[in-house]
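Batch manifest line 185
LIGAND: protoporphyrin IX containing FE
JOB: complex structure
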Amino acid sequence: MSLNAKTKYSGFAMLLHWLIAGLVIAQWLISIRAEDAPTREESGAIMANHFALGVVIFAVVVVRLVWRQISPPPPQNPDHAAWERTLSRIVHFAFYALLLVMPIAGWIALSSFGEPISVWGLFQLPALPVPQNPDLGEQIFELHGASGIALLVLAAFHGLAALKHTFLDKDGTLYRMLPFGSAKG
Ligand code: HEM
Ligand code: HEM
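JOB STATUS: finished
ARTIFACT:
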């Protein structure tokens, strides 16, 4: 490793990473609260926040992907095994794929009920011109829910892997995504 090797993400990339992580957890908590709501009306009112936040997450992920082109990630730690580096790339790719596809699938599903997405009354995404088909909408939402669980399982695995590398292997992986501390690589 050269002393000048870049081992950290840019400050803006760090900000976007932790913002996206926090919003995804919030998105999950909202869906749980909606499921536990005593009436359909209350559940719908809570889910309206989930729909609006989904639009926000999508936009932040697009900003993240544009920024990734402008300021690419640091090279992977060459001390990590080849399979670890490949797995890490696959997981990061899966995160971005899910974070783009899930809100679009949600929008298509809601559109098949003929419903627009209101982003807290600030603006609306109109229903897409898809055939009205509530059964199909339900099926897409079910797939969306399953993808949401997959995303959370992946996030838990990803977070635990970062902690294992940092505190057991002591290679500073976590500090690649934090403005303090030093990371090998
Ligand atoms: C990146 C953005 C999004 C993420 C990360 C996300 C994540 C999730 C998660 C974790 C669940 C809970 C799954 C479960 O506990 O079974 C869920 C459920 C749900 N989401 Fe999203 N969501 C996003 C965007 C959207 C959008 C934009 C819509 C609609 C326009 C939407 C509609 C729904 C619905 C209706 C459910 C209940 C699904 C069911 O199990 O039937 N989501 N979402
Ligand atoms: C929903 C939660 C999370 C999501 C969606 C997520 C997503 C991602 C993505 C997409 C990357 C790749 C960044 C890029 O190259 O553009 C990344 C990197 C990273 N994440 Fe997360 N993350 C989450 C939670 C966490 C947690 C809880 C931790 C730590 C405990 C963590 C630690 C890291 C670290 C250290 C990196 C840099 C890894 C490297 O340099 O190869 N993330 N994360």
